[in-house]
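Case study 2.
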Amino acid sequence: MSSLVLKLENVAVSFRGKFLLNGISLEIMKGEQWVILGPSGAGKTVLAHSIAGNFFFTGDISGPFDNLEAFQKRVIVVDHHHRFKNLNNRQDFYYQQRYNSSDASETISVADDLAAYRNAENSCFHPEELIDLFLIRSLMPEPLIQLSNGENKRLQIVKALLTDHDLMILDQPFAGLDAEGCILLSEIIDRL
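Prediction:
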């Protein structure tokens, strides 16, 4: 029988008097993969970030942990939009700007971005295996800003998998991917 990972009871999030989420209840068991669907603005991202402790909520989030705040630090949300700093750590970029080729010399490479994760001791995955599985090896010299949406999403998932965590939430993992990219990412998720 599966064991409980997370339970939400009547979770609500409001902003300026308007509910972004209201009455959300669910149970996630070990080994399950959940897909939460809804139109744009329905609150899927708010729910992900509420579970991760990034939004104030009412209701109850519980599980087989003693301290919700400690658990929330071990929740990783791989966002739809990825932001990163330039080499001077001052200007924010995001992946839609990758066509600004003049910015390429101002951003770090994929290899530099992965450097902090490649010696991960707490991950159950070997970094080199993930780099190959997610087809990242050929991208290592590329500046982050020049990655496609699919390449960027695969890189973010590799980094998340190499981070010690209890729960990983992928926010819109297939958004912006072509058909081949969706198939590849789906196959990788299934293999994991």
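The domain at 4-73 is CATH 3.40.50.300 (Rossmann fold).
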